[in-house]
Design a protein that fits this description.
The structure is a homodimer of 325-residue chains. With 325 residues, chain A is of the alpha/beta class. The first copy, chain A, folds into 3 domains: 44 residues, lambda repressor-like DNA-binding domains (434 Repressor (Amino-terminal Domain)), CATH 1.10.260; 123 residues, 3-Layer(aba) Sandwich (Rossmann fold), CATH 3.40.50.2300; 131 residues, Response regulator (Rossmann fold, 3-Layer(aba) Sandwich), CATH 3.40.50.2300. Chain A is 43% helix and 18% strand. A 6-stranded parallel β-sheet of chain A has the order 2-1-3-4-5-11, with helices on both faces. In chain A, helix 11 links the parallel strand 8 and strand 9. In chain A, helix 5 packs across helix 12. Chain A is elongated and about 85 Å long. The termini of chain A are far apart. Chains A and B meet through helix 4, helix 5, strand 2, helix 6 and helix 11 of A and helix 4, helix 5, strand 2, helix 6 and helix 11 of B. The structure holds a DNA duplex (30 and 30 nucleotides).
Chain lengths: 325, 325
DNA sequence: TGCAACATCTTTTAAGGTTGCCATTTGGCA
DNA sequence: TGCCAAATGGCAACCTTAAAAGATGTTGCA
């Protein structure tokens, strides 16, 4: 594979001149520019990123760490991230932690080795120590760390409030809240807080179904939901922590001959594409995934440029009413 | 950030010794090993991948190019790829071409610059010239190139055959086949071939609804489906090229008051998670995404090791009967 | 005992492709 | 002639690893 040196030789110039042409720096005559262009084309030259980043001490790569790639919420997040990253000249190094600490930590180490420009960490669980002495920016999504990284979240609390208010307004009196992960603590827990506050105020009881991260990672809640709904036939309103859970609730209701929304009303969270593909379509809390992704990439970009970041950014959610309420 | 040199200094050794410890090569005394380990921990040292890959002239990174990240089929593909790549010590550089030639080609160039170990290209559309003079392996998924790259596909033709046979066996006599992209030519087109062969043999007419890649990328077929089903009330069987299309067909049928499976039967393709979240659940052609992903990564691994690859690998599909037939 | 042959461990040296800085050359203009 | 702008060249540095060479220690045998 051709190197800068080869191009320089071919064009009858030195590497520094060619480098300057490539990076549009300093004085270059049009003639030189042309010669370099021809040499590059002739030799099919591609700049060596390794050498470049070795010299520059950084890359244009963002380490994107997610717990789950095929979960529609993260799939959409990744998709948006990639698009905004690309717009800003960044590439994405995709790291799937699969909900395990070890893999997450190993990927963080790897990102450091790769000298990524920064890390965007989505609702993970790595021990804080890994971030000690890190000299690159870390932006968290739906996760708040105590060590000074900037965080982007949606208004989880408000999501819980909206869901509770809606369910109660629809006449539900025995609620179920599904999806909070017992073993992790994250901003999404605030959904429960908001939900609880409204329920308490309106004196409507609710059951909280705390799940494990393995369920989260396998996206398999059916059994849990079936046993719970069977054991509690009084339940008439469900607030699920994701549309995936809500969609599975729908299937379980069908299996148990519980009509939705007549007997049980359901509200999901996220508003991803499956929300409009179920029957009935899901009423859900819309998360502004696109805006959140854009914000995260922009913040990372600002941080790289040395700007000071807002410590915590919370974006609004809203209720999208469809057919399950 | 600490370098190898710093570690060597801290441990009272030279860089090459430390390097040998890190890479487990040559003779190293236990004492040295211990000292190096301590120094690394103390300085929080992370090897510089850029320097490493500059020296080694290659990386452990796979360039994964997909047309679409949030499409459930690709999301699942990416998820599997990442898992198998990780198992084999590779990292994933995620490239989303968004169905555009330009972006795909730019990403290919970028992969060359990054000196990736190899490229896995999923059903893209880049001009072949981009691959001229490439010295790294390229594995294609669901795409067959004439220039000697190895390809992994599912038995698309058989998928079409199974779908047609099933629909006809269910009594359908006016079929619709949706999803073939008119502007691209790819292995998935064989689904149509298989479908057509069976229809011709059994003398069952079918309409082919050729779509554009913009629809594919936006996952938005509703309007097209609605107008087609309205214009052709005789249609009683639909073979969709993906579960996403099938799920949207289901919604359109509901809107048009067409009962599924009584009046119209539907068969999807892929067998991704939404297939079990619709009501009724989708009968679909199962693609062995996991096996295909594993195969692609393994083939890439073999290619890197210099092994000769099978030119074209076709994995079997099967029909999963659920509730839309 | 003396020393060659070998095993074990470490250092020295060079290379890999790019960029930033400083030096040099050329031509134009006061 | 002196000065400046425009254009290009020379060289070190970034961090790691491979290969060769050097430095010890150990064994075997005359």
């Amino acid at each position: 594979m051709a190197t800068l040196k080869d191009v320089a030789k071919e064009a009858g110039l030195t590497t520094s001149t060619v480098s300057r042409v490539l990076n549009n720096r300093g004085y270059i005559s049009n003639n030189t520019r042309k010669k370099v262009g021809e040499a590059i084309k002739k030799l099919n030259y591609h700049p060596n990123e390794a050498a470049r980043s070795l010299r520059m001490k950084s890359t244009n790569t963002i380490g994107l760490i997610v717990p789950h790639v095929s979960h529609p919420y993260f799939a959409e997040m990744i998709s948006n991230m990639e698009a905004f990253a690309y717009e800003n000249g960044y590439k994405i190094l995709l790291c799937n932690s699969q909900c395990t600490h070890e893999k997450e930590e190993e990927y963080i180490r790897m990102c450091l080795s790769y000298k990524v420009a920064g890390i965007i960490l989505c609702s993970g669980s790595a021990a804080l120590e890994v971030f000690d002495g890190i000299d690159i920016p870390v932006i968290t999504m739906e996760r708040f760390l105590d060590n000074g990284t900037a965080s982007v979240e949606c208004d989880n609390r408000q999501g819980g409030v909206l869901a509770a208010e809606k369910l109660i307004a629809c006449g539900c009196r025995h609620l179920l809240h599904v999806g909070r992960i017992g073993t992790l603590s994250m901003p999404a827990d605030m959904r429960t807080e908001g939900f609880k506050d409204v329920c308490d105020k309106k004196k409507v009881p609710f059951i909280e179904l705390i799940t494990e991260d393995t369920l989260y990672c396998n996206m398999e809640y059916s059994e849990l939901l079936e046993s719970t709904l069977s054991a509690h036939p009084e339940i008439d309103g469900v607030f699920a922590n994701s549309d995936v859970i809500a969609a599975q609730t729908l299937q379980v209701c069908r299996k148990l001959n519980i009509s939705v929304p007549e007997k049980v009303k359901i509200i999901g969270f996220d508003d991803v594409n499956i929300a409009t593909l179920t029957t009935p379509q899901l009423t859900t809390i819309h998360q502004p995934v696109k805006e959140m992704s854009k914000m995260a990439v922009n913040m990372l970009h600002d941080a790289v440029a040395g700007k000071l970041l807002v410590r915590r950014t919370v974006l609004p959610v809203n209720l999208i009413e469809r057919e399950t309420t």
